[in-house]
Amino acid sequence: MNRNMIRFLISKLLIIEAGLLLVPLIVAFIYREPHQNLLSISITIGILLVVGLLGSSFKPKNHHIYAKEGVLIVALCWILWSFFGALPFVFSG
Fold it and tell me: TM spans, by residue (predicted)?
């Protein structure tokens, strides 16, 4: 199992999620949501960027992905996106 490639791709997907969280941040800013909501989304984006950049800083030597790795990447992506996507709600109280 190519764990380095799995880590690299999951990290890239977390960076994509950080980019997608910019949309609710902009909408919250336009509709003048309380600062706590803006801060909770911003903190989540920061956490995602740190985790994603740390994980993707080391590029794997072997770029092959087999079916087993693909299934694991998809499953981990669903779990991690759900976890990190819920963090703004946890932080905002």
Answer: 12-31, 37-58, 70-91
Q: How many CB atoms lie within 10 A of CB 26?
A: 11
Q: Which tens digit of pLDDT belongs to each residue from 62-80? A: 888 999 999 999 999 999 9
Half-sphere exposure of 37 (CA within 13 A, CB side): 12
- Which range marks the domain in which residue 40 is found? 3-92
Count of domains forming the chain: 1
Spatial separation of the C-alpha atoms in residues 60 and 1, rounded to whole Å: 12
Enter the pTM of the model: 0.90
Nearest in space to 54 (alpha carbons), one of 7, 16, 87, 86: 7
